[in-house]
Amino acid sequence: MIIPFPSLRRIAILSMSSTFLADWPYYAGILNDIAHSVSFTEKNESFADHLSGAL
What we know:
By secondary structure, this protein is an alpha+beta fold. It is built from two helices and two strands. The chain has a two-stranded antiparallel sheet with strand order 1-2.
């Protein structure tokens, strides 16, 4: 997954792999959750807060 920064001067690249193809939907779901949690606001939020359900 490639996430461009708003300035388009940087990108974040995230990937996962597994040798067990049956796990693919699980890993795709993790990447999807990460992609939907990305924000370019000024708030001081951590990804851990999103995972814990605090936000």
